[in-house]
Amino acid sequence: xxxxxxxxxxMAALSxxxxxxxxxxxxxxxxxxxxxxxxxxxxxxxxEHIGRPDISEAGEDALEEGDQxxxxxxxxxxxxxxxxxxxxxxxxxxxxxxxxRAVAMNKKILCLFRVSSGRVLSAMIRGADNGRSxxxxxxxxxxxxxxxxxxxxxTFPSL
Length: 159
What we know:
By secondary structure, this protein is α/β, with parallel strands linked by helices. The protein has helices spanning 29-39, 66-80, 93-104, 123-126, 144-155, and strands at residues 15-19, 44-45, 83-87, 108-114, 134-139. Strand 1 (15-19), helix 1 (29-39) and strand 2 form a beta-alpha-beta unit. The longest helix is centred in the middle third of the chain and has 15 residues, at 66-80.
């Protein structure tokens, strides 16, 4: 899909928190990297590391600060975020936890589920879709750009 006529640079005021599986499996890392690339058109992605190829299923275990640091840092980023975008195809306890926290914080949430994966999305995620603050969209990779454009245009029409 070609770039639409919107001035994407004016959207950088939004803080975006992207969720994707790390310890639950890295099979979709390239998908995450592409979604993150597209999200940058809409704001600052606080969690760009999710798409990095050097992060394995072991996650950021090499960080000297450990799991508590990762948790506290990520919850702080979640608090800062205007929007949470989660790729929920690969089941992940961490992503589920982040989404639960985001709902409790009254964040705007967009969940993306790739139907061609052959998986079935958790009822706890799909059932949270209220069409307003939480939205779940089925997608294929070629659809992401359009879905994000529509979501941000409707959710933040003044930007």
